[in-house]
Amino acid sequence: MKTFTIGGVHPKENKLSKGVAISIAPIPERVMIPLSQHVGAPANPIVAVGDIVKVGTKIGESAGFVSANVHSSVSGTIEKIDMYPDLSGNKKQMIVIKTDGNDEWEPTIDRSTTLQKDITSFTPEIIKEKIAIAGIVGMGGATFPMSVKLTPPKDVTIDYLLINGVECEPYLTADHALMLEKAEEICVGIELIKKALGVSKALVGIENNKPDAIAKMQQVATAYQGIEIVPLKVKYPQGSEKHLIQALTGREVPSRKLPASVGTIVCNVASTFAVYEAVIKNKPLIDRIVTVTGTGLTTTANVLTRIGTSFSDLLNVVGGLPEGTDKVISGGPMMGRAVRSLEIPIMKGSSGVLCMTEKEAHRKPETNCIRCGRCVDGCPMGLEPYLLYALSKKSMFAELNEHNVTDCFECGSCSFSCPAHKPLLDYIRLGKAKAIQILQNEAKKEVDKK
Amino acid sequence: MTTIINTILLLCAIGLLASIALYFVAKKFKTDENPLYGEVESLLPGANCGGCGFPGCRKLAEKMVDSPSLDGLYCSVGGEQTMEQIATFLGKVASQTEKKVAVVKCKGTCEQRPKTVSYEGISSCSFAASFHAGDTACSFGCLGLGDCEKACSFGGIKINPVTKLPEVDSNLCTACGQCATACPRHIIELRKTNKKDMKIYVGCSNKDKGAIARKACAAACIGCGKCMKTCPNNAIVVVDSLAYIDANACKLCRKCVEACPTGAIVETNFPVRKKVEENN
Looking at residue A389, what is its pLDDT? Predict the structure, then answer.
């Protein structure tokens, strides 16, 4: 069975919400919709306080090439447009909408659930335009605008579309649930992206801890030409773009290059489903499936949630925040981030809400490095985490660039595998930020010279 | 015995040859350097802190010798005394620079600014700042992890273990600016100080609107502008809900300190107020 070659770890899966059917979250009283839910420039607000909006009304206009539109996820009145803290506590511009309870949708959106397989009427241009209008971003977590992804540089030829159904993060099951329930729609979505890119072959990578999803997708995909389902060996971080490319095609993305440089484009299954909805049903990206999970919860859920619902409203679906919760994480336990307050909204890239009990939430005391080299074995990028850690700790940031610290994508395999519980990733993150600053300053100096 | 004599003779011969070679090499590659450089350098404190804007004391010494006047060249570590010495030595006039001292513009102690989250990451302000907005609701104030203390070469700034805020020892502070550069929140300012190190400044950096700032910290500047109205010297401006006192215009009358409803304005080293005594 295929997988990537270097490094990787095996965290305990803990997929508590495995096989739980997708439920629909109640529409909250108020939503907070950030204008920056994607990589790139924040969208510009195009509504004013007091305006009446419907579900799917555009409220933020994409500001530049690498940016995305933002739509209202509820019907109601714009209450405030102001700066609010995001999950890290830094202030971001958000639009607060008070819902009116009618849940009135824009008339252009087709709300029927009938499956439409015929895509002959859509030209590649129309597909790309509809995706851009709908404000779709990579929903696996990186939130890279989809419209940019579908416009690869002219000098490369794309021969594979790769669909990411790996979901290698422990606990998360949102993509798994989606593949089980919306396999047909995902396949039509793949057909649409293939058409937009002019690619004939698509590979869907799914880890073999989801045999039901593999079987379901394989059964559905037989009806489509050029969609192949590839079961993958379970290994974290297979869901990373570069590692999925290597696992599926054997190609290695060079350092500091994009997947397009090896002729591939990677899309998450959730984004693929969003593409189907955007093109066929004219529905902008206003909701997503979020896994609400944690060992302290009595019930776990895969919830279809409107963008902008607060964490506390979403947690009410599973009976509120359980007592003894010490940490709530947005995303998975490996790469997700702890939130500072529950009054922050679900965004386009939020794949999970994970509640950790007191026992799980805290770090273990740090001891001395025993030179076991497990961090080196675990690093999927072939870096030397112990060295990057030491250099960063000694503030030798310029040297970090010589050791390719910028290739680190912060998967946390090193910290996870360290038996001495060293904060390896913390220091590498710090060093990476400083090293990037040094590179930028050098680039600036060269531009100034010219 | 002959072995010993031979060895000694051989070593003497090598030594002689090497010294002759060195003599000629030294003559051939002799560089002319102003001997004053070294002498001025020896007068400087040798902290190599970079506070003067030059990479180390040597470079400052060279600049001092080479430039026609000492304007703009100042060693804040050595202070006026050192500058006077160098000026007399070089026969130039020392530039008059007012004495400065670092001040920390945050009064958010543990009581004033309650913690909202607990942070378990590494003990570095620059890391914490890149990761989140601090463990209190104030996203502008001190993070309390001591990057300034680590940056100071003179032991002039120390984190108070009780308040978790840095405190500056004016006697040790040389105003080199290392702490101000190290602080990711930019809350350390080099301020002009007066006689007996009396100074008045706003001990807050929170640019949030009043209500939000007050909720996060009891000692926050809420931008009410009372100090601005009270100031007889027009030394105070309020920008982004945050007051700033111009140290050059301030006449140390202390009216703003009394007017401030949250006690965000700090006065240091003033004699005890008479009024307070009367009230008591």
Answer: 95
Q: Is there a single domain that holds both residue B184 and residue B264? A: yes
Q: List residues of A whose CB lies inside 8 A of any B CB.
A: 85, 88-91, 338, 340-341, 362-363, 423, 426-427, 429-430, 433
Nearest-by-Cβ selection for B130 from A89, A363, A430:
A430
In 3D, which of A24, A103, A29 has the Cα closest to residue A309?
A: A29
In this prediction, what percent of chain B has a pLDDT beyond 90?
36
pLDDT for A367-386, tens place per residue? 999 999 999 999 999 999 99
**What single DSSP character describes residue B269?**
S
| CA–CA gap between residue A175 and residue B26 (Å, rounded) | 76
Which residue range is the domain that position B265 belongs to?
A: 100-279
Please, which residues have CB within 8 angstroms of residue A73's CB and are 6 or more apart in sequence? A31, A33, A55, A286, A287, A306, A307, A308, A309
Q: Given a cut of 60, is residue B275 above it in pLDDT?
A: no
Grade residue B277 by pLDDT with cuts at 50, 70 and 90. very low
B139:A91 CB<8 A: yes
How buried is residue B258: exposed, middle or buried, by Cβ count under 10 Å (0-12/13-18/19+)?
Answer: middle
B77 lies in the same domain as B200: no
Task: Verify that B129 and B259 share a domain, yes or no.
Answer: yes
Instruction: Select the residue from B120, B140, B208, B212 to test the A interface by mutation, using most A Cβ atoms within 10 A.
Output: B120
Mutation target among A340, A389, A434 for the B interface, most CBs of B within 10 A: A340
Domains of chain A from N-terminus onward: 27-109+285-358 (3.10.20.600), 124-281 (3.40.50.11540), 374-449 (no CATH)
Same-domain pairing of B80 and B112: no
Query: Residue A90's closest chain B neighbor by CA?
Result: B133
Closest among A72, A68, A62 to A105, alpha carbons compared: A72
pLDDT at B274: 62
Residue B279, pLDDT > 70, answer no
Total number of domains in chain B: 2
Q: B120 contacts in A (CB within 8 Å)?
A: 362-363
Q: Are residues B203 and B224 located together in one domain of the fold? A: yes
- How far is Cα A302 from Cα A178, in angstroms, rounded to an integer? 9
Please give the mean pLDDT across all residues of chain A: 93
Are A300 and A193 a contacting pair, CB within 8 Å? no
With an 8 Å Cβ cutoff, are A429 and B130 in contact? yes
| Reported pTM | 0.84
The CA distance from A368 to the nearest CA of chain B, in Å, is 15
B181 near A CB under 8 A: no
Question: Which residues in chain A have their CB less than 8 angstroms from residue B126's CB?
Answer: 430
Based on the fold, state whether residues B118 and B215 are members of the same structural domain: yes
CATH number, domain with residue B234:
3.30.70.20
Kindly state whether residue B266 falls inside one of the protein's structural domains.
yes
The verdict on residue B220 lying in a domain is yes
